[in-house]
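Bench log. Compound arrived from synthesis this morning; before running ITC I wanted a structural hypothesis for how pyridoxal-5'-phosphate sits in the protein. Inputs:
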Amino acid sequence: MEALPPRGRTAEHVLAELKAVREGDLPTHGGRLFAYVYDSGLSGVDDLAMSAYALAAHVNGLDPTAFPSVHTLENSLVAAAARLLGGGPGTSTPGVVGSVTSGGTESLMLAVKAARDARPEVAAPRLVIPAGAHPAFIKAATYLGLGLDVVPVSPHTLRPSPADVAAAIGRDTVLVACSAPSYPHGVVDPVGPIAAAAAERGVRCHVDACFGGWTLPYLRRLGVDVPPFDLSVDGVTSISVDLHKYAYCPKGVSVLLYRDAAARAPQYFAYADWPGYPLVNPAITSTRSGGPIAAAWATLRHIGDDGYLALAARCLDASRAIAASVSTVGGLRLLGDLGESTVVVFTSDDPALDLYVLADELAVRGWHTQPQLPYGGLPPSIHMTVTAAVAPRVGEFATAIGSAAADAMAHGPVRLPDNVLALVEMLGRSEDAITPEVVARLAASLGLDGAAPGRMAGVNAVLAAAAPRLRERMLVEFLSLLQTPSWQ
Ligand SMILES: Cc1ncc(COP(=O)(O)O)c(C=O)c1O
């Protein structure tokens, strides 16, 4: 179905087509999806956000003089995030400033760019990150030409040791980053000692609180022992929080905060040496829709501080209940510190209970979790981001995981066909052998050639068996296959 028919269709027809296309998607609402989407479960919030989005969808943040509403709303979001994350009047960072970006990746790329450009004398700038940091940092380093120093995380604490981070800081380090919390395991890195080590060497320290930055302050108010992680920590020079995650706003909004305007200055880009309009951009994109910004602003105003506290309490109760159900299944073991965030992560110690088969069995029952691959000394795991909408469903989940685990045991671990194993082995030996045709054949033999892929255990087993570089090549080729028009 091409997007541009010879003659336009009615609005009703087009919407019906769109609904049909969406049928293969996972359910974004209802508390059964533990990744990608954040559902507050509150009625009316989404409708409000959509109305606000529509009011500002065609507004362009490109020119601050043409559409001052964008800056009014952005400054308001920045102030709210700053206050939540230890900055603003009466704090140690009264001069906090920030920018609104399109998401966590853009916030992190800008934090890296600002750090690089603040040190023009460093010819070959480097970035220090713990292994649990989000790949957006690696993307930033790759796009912006920085070297990377990745500090391992302990298989026990799932955090880096501050001494290892300090040792990784060298003459060319322009930024040290850490997570609060990390996505894979939901643990808060030792921000205090890491930021202190960075400050001692005169290096910036960015805290990636994109994932849980909107819940941690509320968890602390609920009595959870959340370690210091925000702008109140000496040495933290910038911090990011995504509003399209635990602030339950529609996709496309993150806030990047700096201690002061001088720290933010190198983030900006201006150009006035061409025959067109003089350009000044705070972020990567130039044209920026006011839609997501207005939707986020409306969501925050509507839910309010008391509403977020209540949502965090619901998330906390739900994650504790989910974790308790996981622990009752023999062979499964929780990873990470439950309570510090609202993420439940577990692995299997029983070779007969294959995590990837278990994830498929849960999916068959309507529960969508996120399989994670083995890395270094860390085992494969299942990640569950618990949002407020999960709260009313925890009883159903307890039943589901019990029966899913029983069926996964009965099914047994994934056994890849010999031809698939041979192919993976061959690809591991020679990267040149990874052609679009070979990946298409592999995808077909794993059942990935249909519109809605079914069981994914085989795919996860192939990825788990491959080395990271081979995984990346296969993923790229597979995405390229998906991103090919069908010309119908
Ligand atoms: C800790 C962390 N940082 C950054 C990102 C990237 O955010 P986005 O997907 O909005 O670009 C994520 C996404 O999951 C994350 O969990």
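What the model suggests: The pocket of pyridoxal-5'-phosphate is lined by residues 103-105, 108, 134, 136, 179, 183, 208, 210-211, 242 (CB under 6 Å). The two ends are 6 Å apart (CA to CA).
ITC booked for Thursday regardless.
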